[in-house]
Amino acid sequence: MGTTEQGEQAAPAAAPAPPAASEGTAVAAVAPVDPIKAERAKQLAEIRERNAHAAAIRGTQWGKELGGMALSAVSHYCTINRLDPARHVEVLGGRIYLTGELYMERGAPLLLKRLVTMDEVDYVHEDAGLNAVVSGADKSATPELEAWARAEKMRRFQQRVKLGIPHDATGAAVVRIRVPGTDSIIVGFNWCGGTSKVKTKKDGTKYRADPVGDAEPVKTAQSRALRRAWRQVMAVLPEYGEDVTRLEVTAIEANATMRVESEKEAELRASMVKNRPLLASGTDADPYSLGQGAAGSPQESPKAGVEGEGSPPAAEGAEKAGEPEPERAVSVCEKHNLERDDDGTCYECERDFDRELAEDEGLGL
User: Fold this and answer.
1) pLDDT tier at 171 (50, 70, 90 boundaries)?
2) What is d(CA 233, CA 269) in angstroms, rounded to the nearest whole number?
3) How far, in Å, are 34, 149, 361 from residue 144 at the CA level?
4) CA-CA distance, 314 to 230, in Å (whole number)?
5) 3-state secondary structure string, the chain?
6) Which of 121, 185, 274, 321 is most buried by a 10 A CB count?
């Protein structure tokens, strides 16, 4: 214990006083979080994300023809799985498929750890530029390029024969994944375009079964070949397959939901078409037609019998009495492919308006 110069015992040092809070460094008290507002904010964020996904889906080749119910199901699937609808999924024949880009992203850690290696994507379809060099139509080709083109054309031909790929395919890709330490080679391939993609309906009419592949044959063939190859990796390396399997299982569930909702939507459209003449014709069998009472008898008009004030002239009325009213023109919403109401909106347009209104009002609808 220390002493002063006079030998007196020193008093213990006082504890330092807390620094005074200045005007710029005062700590504000944390306000309690309102659970109701927090839940509403969460719901609004999900609605905005689903709307953003729906807009992205409409911008894809496969999403332009989706009905409102199917669009909602795909958007919800992408939201809950944190997927980008423009890169990670595509819908064909009413089913959700994961793209090759998604499988590649999930398989990137395996490539970094050298658990697997992947060759460059091999394109084996007929190429117009390659054929021009071989045929001599490309006058700028060097002898070395011509020799390579002939060898490449033959190699592609042999690969198509070996894998059973049609020669008239406009896009064909082969993906090879190797597992180090083994002689195994995982092969995935796919093709798009050509006569093999033409299908026949029960009534004998033919149609193109793959509009996405027809629009971008090379890109689509590559994506599907990657998907087929990486799905085989799931069987070899279960640690890779766990996450992807979960996405595939939830996709199957979404497909079932989408099928049910699409059937409901089709029934709704059919009922609208079936009931349209009843609402438009105004026949005597319709108790709500113009000029009919609840029992089908003409309603009395306060100005009946006064020509020009509530009833047409006798001659004109006689001419129209035996003529049915013309059916009203049917207007179809281009966005949702549904019939518009008298106010110019369809059922899905009204739902979109309700969602936007819910966002503005802060409601979690």
Assistant:
1) very high
2) 44
3) 74, 9, 70
4) 81
5) CCECCCCCECCCCCCCCCCCCCCCCCCCCCCCCCHHHHHHHHHHHHHHHHHHHHHHHHCCCCCCCCCHHHHHHHHHHHHHCCCCCCCCEEEECCEEEECHHHHHHHHHHHHHCCCCEECCCEECCCCHHHHHHHHCCCCCCCHHHHHHHHHHHHHHHHHHHHHCCCCCCCEEEEEEEECCCCCCEEEEEEEECCHHHEEECCCCCEEECCHHHHHCHHHHHHHHHHHHHHHHHHHHCHHHHHHHHHHHHHHHHHHHHHHHHHHHHHHHHHHHHHHHHHHHHCCCCCCCCCCECCCCCECCCCCCCCECCCECCHHHHHHHHCCCCCCCCCCECCCCCCECCCCCCCHHHHHHHHHHHHHHHCCCC
6) 121
Give the tokens for residue 264.
């409901």
Tokens linked to 260: 């049910």
pLDDT tens for each residue of 68-81: 888 888 998 998 99
Q: Which residues contact 118 (CB under 8 A, 6 or more apart)?
A: 111, 175, 176, 177, 178, 229
pLDDT in tens, 19-33: 555 555 555 566 677
Query: Given this model, what pLDDT does residue 165 score?
Result: 95
Predicted TM-score (pTM) of the model is 0.57
CA distances for 25 relative to 28, 29, 31, 352, angstroms:
9, 13, 18, 47
Torsional sign, CA 65, 173, 135, 132: positive
- The C-alpha atoms of residue 99 and residue 245 are separated, in whole angstroms, by 14
Write out the two tokens for 184: 């195994």
